[in-house]
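The record is given unchanged here:
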Amino acid sequence: MTDWFKVKNKVRENIFQRVKLEMIYCCEEHVDIALDTVVNEHETFPLLTKLDVDNLSTSCEYCRNSAVYIVANK
């Protein structure tokens, strides 16, 4: 079963490298900056996902506050 997880992770890694997935963790205050960053760098609409309560230990990439959203390009 361990080999299956290695293969699965390798495939996922290759897909992320081809797609150039960008995920920005941000707080309420910096969500507009994260949205603009994805639009400007990838020229595509951003995907905005609200984090679950369990993931609140992740910090914002622009400040030290707890992240509330993930902004991604795909």
In short: Helices lie at 2-19, 31-42. The beta strands are 23-26, 47-50, 69-72.
